[in-house]
């Protein structure tokens, strides 16, 4: 893609955007995006990841007159098929697609076309003379092309030129309309459910002024660092604290022989979502063309603390064995499309390391306009979850929501808990039905952790973040344990991947009514630490806990004392193998929980 050619065209023609025709090709899309962003242009990729059979039908019905000018695939014959129109070839291309997996739109190089006419053309092209050139006379997949020796342009009827472009249904809107049809009246009902009980003033009073916390680097090359903030900055604004936090992060990385390029996932909590744009302006300067995936939400951080950050790092620790392969790449889509939202900040939609996929948080944006969908909460949830589903499929074909090993859902209203759960369960059920032939036994699903926070980007009501592993979900190991305590109960749910390389541990504390005393704090802390230790041992795998993310209700000091005591308990019990602990205050948790620990573990 020629930068200077685009620059010249931009100056002469007042170009604002550039469209790319890639359906599956990352190479083409990424090149166009890079040039566009350097010039301040908007990249468009409305064919990206579209269903090819539907797309071909749309092109034909839109009066696109195109002929095959090159063929290079099994089932396509230069003598028979060159010069035929897409409309004539459509039934046969469908047959080849179903029988042999041929890309029906030729995205795999099976064929090339030349457009003779379309609604945008003022004149149509007429081929007067052409010759067939056989490039390869292969018995199974001959390669041949047309060489035009004479052609001319011909005027079109005036009414054809004046006719507006055909307006087909928008794939994004069609999907949203289908979701909207399924909304039940109950979703619109007035909130009569649980109200906030913490009397929280939207700000946690206990500051996290401890030094950064690091996990042990595991054999697969992962390490987590948490507790990054900008409290030590002399500049009290968001730009100053962001600079200070990133400087702190760089120091930590340097001390442990890491580099910024090794970061694959960032969790970023801000005190005020209105700082999102200013924060991103500083943040983007520290990352290259393939930034890490990111989750960014508002949390009731202590007064004066504007942000809090933790991140996952990866680099292989052992030399590559002969015959083995390593794979690490980012999915970084910046174009407007009908697929899923472009990134709204300096982050990638997902980061893949071998068979693990770390996704960015997804909110219910309409991909083709990047505006927040205006619909009921159930539709917002469906749209957010479907974005995650599409991202997973784009990173690894056939990867589904059933492959998720850890899932965090952020919402801004407690009344939406039941709705969000119902949508999640419905989509998982649909996934199971779709893959029934592939999974012969019951699949082991990861729990959905839901937390209530003050605000999300774009004023969304739902954001979903997941980590997935490409394994057989039916061969996973899942354990549920509920333990009664003097003050309530502890619920534990673990999911171990089929190959035993990674796992999630979900640990929640449900308190009975009444205020917690000092004795209760000590008892609960010890019981939580014991439950964590038992859960890790029960997995019977040499996994290293990487990040223990503790969501806790801001408010009464006993809860904060429990959280602080839990961190100390884990360090005391596990020593160097203790996880990095990320303490996240939230407005509320469902099911009378006072805290919920979510831990990711890896070999």
From TrEMBL:
Associated pathway: Protein modification; peptidyl-diphthamide biosynthesis
Catalytic reactions of this protein: diphthine-[translation elongation factor 2] + NH4(+) + ATP = diphthamide-[translation elongation factor 2] + AMP + diphosphate + H(+)
GO molecular function: diphthine-ammonia ligase activity
EC number per UniProt: 6.3.1.14
Signal peptide extent: none
Top-rank EC class of the record's enzyme: ligase
Pfam families: Diphthami_syn_2 (PF01902), Ribonuc_L-PSP (PF01042)
GO biological process: protein histidyl modification to diphthamide
Ranges where the Diphthamide synthase domain occurs: 14-140
Family recorded in the similarity comment: Belongs to the Diphthine--ammonia ligase family.
UniProt protein name: Diphthine--ammonia ligase
